[in-house]
């Protein structure tokens, strides 16, 4: 068992999430999530930081977590400052897993780097959630999640110790800072905490109610779609050798590690960006329709080595047994 996640204070259609449940993620799931959310703009990361970054993120998930998502000796022996940075990235990956697996949110990204993103000038006057600290001026949450017509807000914290109440209050304040996305109130505004331990991961996800006041955010949903698949739009893709990857195209990103995308999804995303509202909506509907139709197929592909996401991305990790990380 990889650990537990405690979910509380969700309301309405999401109240069924409340309670304690197992973290069912596999290590390939967390690696796939790291590759998705490990940088505000992955295209910028590849251009400015270097193409090796994606290998670094893959190695981070493999070297610092064992198959049960317990921290390894490699992680525990890191210098404290470096441990904080690694925890930050892994916390984002666990948040991404939770959003996809438990909330059925296919797309979750930073939008701060989006060219189309426009924020209100200040979060002053925002109505904090219950138990939240008042958000600081210009406070912005980490992630926006998109589930067809629904939008969700997440503030993600990865830690090596259980969060203090003051840290929880601050995170709740950050998600309280956002009132609306493209004119619509978010369906949820979640503070997520994932604690990385030698005994396994522990999660805490909170979404208390709050009045709708604070920043307004607008962005082009198509930019989120294009950013999600940018790794495959910017490079050469080919079929993968693993049978589980039939219908996917991608590439080997490290020895025995393959990263891929459903070819039908990629074909729907590729080409010129839509230029009108009607064309944009038509393309979005096409992509969400493909994902809904193939959702069962994605789930059936999952194994201890294969992570298939609801957005059509696939991670195959065949390294187990070659050079395993220490226990």
Kindly state the percentage of residues in helix. Answer: 25-40%
Shape: globular
What Rg is obtained from the alpha carbons, in whole angstroms? Answer: 19 Å
Q: Summarize the main sheet.
A: 7 strands, mixed
| DSSP summary: helix tally | 10
The structure class reads: alpha+beta
Q: Low-confidence spans: pLDDT under 50, at least 5 residues? A: none
Strand content: 15-25%
Strand order of the largest sheet: 2-1-9-8-6-5-3
| End-to-end Cα distance | 15 Å
Short structural description:
This protein is of the alpha+beta class and 327 residues long. The chain has helices at residues 27-37, 42-49, 53-64, 73-76, 80-103, 165-176, 221-228, 230-233, 263-269, 277-300; strands spanning 3-8, 19-22, 107-109, 118-119, 143-147, 150-159, 178-181, 188-195, 201-206, 215-218, 248-254, 257-262, 306-308, 313-317.
